Amino acid sequence: MMTLFTFDRAPEFAHGFVRDIRIRWALEEAALPYVVESVSFAPRSHLAQQPFGQVPFFRDGDVELFESGAILLHLGELSERLLPRAAPARAQAISWLFAAFNSVEMETLPWVYFHFNRVQNEPGWLAALEQRRDRRLDSMEAVLAGRQWLGADFSIADIAMSDVLRLVGHLGGLADYPACRDYVTRASARPAFIKAYQDQLAHFARNAG
After folding, report:
1. Are both 101 and 46 inside the same structural domain?
2. Residues 112-171 pLDDT 10s
3. Which is nearest to 65 in space by CA: 157, 160, 166, 187?
4. Rounded Cα distance, 30 and 83, in Å
5. Cα separation, 29 vs 24, whole angstroms
6. SS3 of 37, please?
7. Phi, then psi, of 31 in degrees rounded to 5
8. Which domain holds residue 36?
9. One domain for residues 148 and 168
10. What is the pTM assigned to this prediction?
11. Of the residues 27, 61, 91, 135, which has the fewest C-beta atoms closer than 10 A?
């Protein structure tokens, strides 16, 4: 039986919008059997399952996942109702899955955050953003301390995460996060990254002007 984990409670303004709804929806669409279990909203006691203290996280036998996008992709592999099997349609669905989180949510979430917290017109808006940034970096520092890669071996997860952190570091945001800095340095030293970086610079240099 698959198990969906969510908070035991949430602020009233978030009811109907907590991200476990994405997983509930997919499970219902695919008619997959599941149960729901609760974890404490505060204090966060599930960092071993979700390193940022968020929900949802998910268990399917001995497979455990966090992040709603990863869970949706896993469920898509289980049901053609969620993810087409034909290559062209499958590619489109996966592209739009990533677009929802990376291109649309990334740009709209700060506005939503400020709307819900009623600080969009306050002078401390930059400090609020920095606080949210540092909360994520604190989590990543703890995850990366004493660890070479996010998993046992280098993977596409490290390509994505190290590139996100590389930009933060480029803007000075990793000054207090040595494990994150070392992780970015390791990733950026890989021959494939060096070639990709040099090729990109050369590409834009050729097309300059």
Report:
1. no
2. 776 666 544 566 777 878 888 898 899 899 999 999 998 889 888 888 888 889 889 998
3. 157
4. 10
5. 9
6. strand
7. 55, 40
8. 2-82+192-207
9. yes
10. 0.77
11. 61
d(CA 194, CA 166): 13
Same domain, 94 and 186: yes
H-assigned helices in the chain: 20-30, 68-78, 87-99, 106-117, 125-144, 156-170, 178-188, 191-206
- Rg of the chain over all Cα atoms, to the nearest angstrom: 19
For residues 49 and 40, is the Cβ–Cβ distance under 8 A? no
Which token pair is 62?
Answer: 């001995």
Return d(Cα 149, Cα 158) in angstroms, integer: 7
Same domain, yes or no: 7 and 70: yes
Question: Rounded to whole angstroms, how far apart are CA atoms 151 and 170?
Answer: 24
Q: What is the CATH number of the domain that holds 13?
A: 3.40.30.10
10 Å CB burial of residue 143 (0-12, 13-18, 19+) is middle
- The number of domains in the chain is 2
pLDDT tens, residue by residue, 28-75: 999 999 999 888 877 677 877 888 888 899 999 999 999 999 999 999
Residues 93 and 184 in one domain: yes
Both 93 and 178 in one domain: the answer is yes
